UniProtKB/TrEMBL annotation:
Belongs to the HMG-CoA reductase family. This is hydroxymethylglutaryl-CoA reductase (NADPH). The keyword DNA damage does not apply. Pfam families: HMG-CoA_red. Keywords: NADP, Oxidoreductase. The keyword Protein biosynthesis does not apply. InterPro entries: HMG_CoA_Rdtase (IPR002202), HMG_CoA_Rdtase_cat_sf (IPR023074), HMG_CoA_Rdtase_eu_arc (IPR004554), HMG_CoA_Rdtase_NAD(P)-bd_sf (IPR009023), HMG_CoA_Rdtase_sub-bd_dom_sf (IPR009029). Its EC number is 1.1.1.34.
Amino acid sequence: MSSIPRDPANDYTEASAQRRRLFIQQQTGQSLQHVGHYSQPIEELPGNVENFTGVAQIPIGFAGPLTLHGEHASGQFYVPMATSEGTLVASYSRGMRLTREAGGITTTVLDDAMQRAPVFRFADARKAQAFGRWVETHFEDIKRAAESTTSVGKLRNIEQYAVAKLRWLRFNFSTGDAAGQNMVTKATREACQWILSNNIDGLEHFALAANLDTDKKHSHLNTLHSRGKRVVAEATIPAEMLKHTLHISPQALFEQRQYSNMGAIVSGAVSNGAHFANGITALFIACGQDVANVAESASGFTYSEIKPNGDYYFSVTIPSLIVATYGGGTGLATARECLGALDCYGQGKALKFAEIVAATVLCGELSLAAAIVADEWVSSHDHYGRNRP
């Protein structure tokens, strides 16, 4: 097999991209005509992709308006959603209309931290224990070393986890408006280099990462302690509005929630929600997020009550929502436009964006549950999802 063509001097040019499209066509027989049509300035792509050849075009629809009463996001927002699934945007728009007419959604950011968790192996458990105490007494020195690599990241604390003669240090950083994985990796490495320079007694081995952070995968640890933003979105829907707008009762919706809770327990699911991933993925693609973070971000909890007056209280909690409004893919042309439409591009906007994502998830959960109860789930897909082979 031949190597994909590259230009060592300057690989981010239209000529290089064109050569690669022709190369792939020659190798596979498949034209890349549509892949080769884009408006993204190629010179902005270093650091985002290698062997740039073209773009994947995902349709974007706007849902809304979404009415929010958040700590950081307040007002009405039109939400960009990139998806190829018919019915999705319509369903989220329906949830947004219902919550808007009910007075809006309240959002709260409870926590915000990004982690890296190196592991240290010792001669025995007692030396590992002594190391843990040493880390506690030298926290300020470790913090100073970590923060020397970044003007944004701040080391909040270090959790410790012990198994046999192993000791994990779970570094927790605030990372401003960046998602921060690369930032905290560099900072943690610098901190660990300082630790290693102190000739720790009994230390046999060190690894910068050993799956306790837990990057790009769900974990119960992050559900409890959070990774990224921990966000709650909640709304109360008047009983009469449910009956008039969705033709269902609060009692029927609450009963369906109990079935869903039990189904999640029986199946061993990591979330009792219906489809957090749908809304999060659509927003992530539209707004230049690292889509692999959906693996962590899409696990969460729904909770509901029937209030004493008969109204329906509904909430979603996302414990590990990893989002950014600065750096990474957020500066790419279409992502910048979509974030800009939410007034969420740039510094000082990450918590606002997190609240919008959580509120959007709530609208999708509410709309899907109502469709199942009202027996409109299949008919709505038949109506909107008409792309048949």
